Amino acid sequence: MSPRAGAGHWIILALSVAMGLAAYRYLIPNGPGLAPPILANRFTALGVLTLHAGFAGTALILGPFQFFAGLRRTRPGLHRALGKVYVTCCLAAGAAGLVLAFGARTGPISTAGFGLLAVAWIFTTARAWRRATQRRFAEHERWMIRSFALTLAAVTLRLYLPFAFLSPFGYDDTYRAISFLCWVPNLVAAELWLARSSPARAAASHRSG
User: Fold this and answer.
1) pLDDT value, residue 5
2) Contact by Cβ (8 Å): 114, 100
3) Whole-number mean pLDDT of the chain?
4) Which of 89, 90, 96, 159 is 20 to 30 A (C-alpha) from 119?
């Protein structure tokens, strides 16, 4: 994902806002369209799912706006304020997601997939925030890209879900694979983009100097 507002960014923005708003349905008791496999998590009754959905949905909605260069340049105060909300939401949703991972109905493989996602999400977001407080903004941006790539797991998971219903391997086995597929390719794509963009940025900096 590029921090510049290209066509891909607008698509990600649209999907993120749509999925973020859809997540809010879990804040409504017995709301419409609730997924039975998610409700089957044994920690749902404790309110962990409500916390996860609310914070993760908000992070999804806010995340794309942090990559608009114009917003960072013209409204730095707003960028910082939204960033604080985004970080808080990611850390809270990640912690709740880690708890939910241990209640996954489809067993230990899903627990591992979603649990590692939660840990990586918390780690990358905390590192991004730490780099911002140190005013190491280039590194902050790189870690924030990683963080949002993991936030987008909520989108990619739902893009994969139809295949779970159609898969010849059955829903549960496919869902176990999705617990990794929803975030590992996202993170790999982010790393490839960062590796490709670093030489270009270094060359541009050299020319401007």
Assistant:
1) 57
2) yes
3) 90
4) 159
pLDDT at 68 > cutoff 90: no
Quote the CA–CA distance of 203 and 209 in Å, as a whole number.
10
Residue 143 backbone phi and psi in degrees, to 5: -70, -30
Residue 129 near residue 159, CB atoms below 8 Å: no
Report d(CA 184, CA 167) in Å as an integer: 20
Q: What is the dihedral sign for C-alpha 141, 142, 145, 147?
A: negative
The 3-state secondary structure of the chain reads CCCCCCHHHHHHHHHHHHHHHHHHHHHCCCCCCCCHHHHCCCCHHHCHHHHHHHHHHHHHHHHHHHHCHHHHHHCHHHHHHHHHHHHHHHHHHHHHHHHHHCCCCCCHHHHHHHHHHHHHHHHHHHHHHHHHHCCCHHHHHHHHHHHHHHHCHHHHHHHHHHHHHHCCCCHHHHHHHHHHHCCHHHHHHHHHHHHHHHHHHHHHHHHHC
In this prediction, residues 105-132 reach a mean pLDDT of 97
pTM of this structure? 0.89
C-alpha span between 131 and 139 (Å, rounded): 6
Cβ–Cβ under 8 Å, residues 88 and 68 = no
